[in-house]
C-alpha cells in the first residue's frame, strides 16, 4: 500500500533522513523503532506532507504523494507526538471540528463520533472539556480524531510517549483492536516492548538510515534467541545463542554472576549499531 523510495530530508548540511526505502503492505501494522533523533518523526511528517521532502518518492496505491493533492491527503490519518487537541472544546466538539474540516455530512459526522467515542470508551465524557482529561484519555481522543474521516493509512508518532505504564498498556489494547480490524498502521516508537507487542514487521532506524527490517521474531533470530549477561573485567558483556541449552552450557563455565534471558529488539539494535534504543 505504501512504498517509500530513497526518501531524503536535509536541513542545510544536516541529513535527517537518508535515502529511506521500505514498503508497508495493506493491513500491516509496521513499526519504525529507533532512539530520539533517529529520523522517525521527520519520516512521518514527510509521508503526511506536513514537511516537504528533499528527494525521493512516497507512493500510496501506485499514486505519488503530493501535498497539493487533497484527495490523497484525505487517505491519511495522523496522530502527532505532541498534543494538538483544542483543550477548551469538548471531546465531541474536537471530533465535530475534524469532521467539518474533512467535509463530512452532519449525519455521517454524528454517527462516526458516537462510534469512535464508544470505541475509546469515552462516551460518558463526550461533553467534558478536553483540558479536564488525563494524558491517556487525550491520546485516545487524538487517535479517534485521526480515524474520524476513515483513512486508509494511520500514522502514529510515538503515541504512548509520556504515559505511565498503566495508560500505555491501555493504549496498546486500543491499538490491538485497530490491528485486528485490518487498518494499515505506521507506528514510530522507542519502546522495545511496544514494537514487539504490536508490530507485524519492524524497521530499525538510526541516524536517518534504515539499519534492518523484518518481523520481530526474525530480527531476534538473526542475533540469537537467548543472551547470557556476565561481568568481565568490570564490564557487562553479552553473548548470544540460538538455544537456552547452548546459553546454559556457556554460562556454566563462567565465574561470578550470570543471567540468561530471551533476546529482544534492543539486543538486535545494539548488535547492529552499538547504540541503545532507549525508553
Automatic annotation (TrEMBL):
Q: Which domain of life is it from?
A: Bacteria
As one GO molecular function, the record gives: ATP hydrolysis activity
Q: Which InterPro entries does the UniProt record give?
A: AAA+_ATPase (IPR003593), ABC_transporter-like_ATP-bd (IPR003439), ABC_transporter-like_CS (IPR017871), ABC_transporter_ATP-binding (IPR050763), P-loop_NTPase (IPR027417)
What keywords are annotated for this sequence in UniProt? ATP-binding, Nucleotide-binding, Transport
What sequence ranges are listed for the domain ABC transporter? Answer: 2-232
Q: What is this protein called?
A: ABC-2 type transport system ATP-binding protein
Q: From which source organism is this entry?
A: Dethiosulfatibacter aminovorans DSM 17477
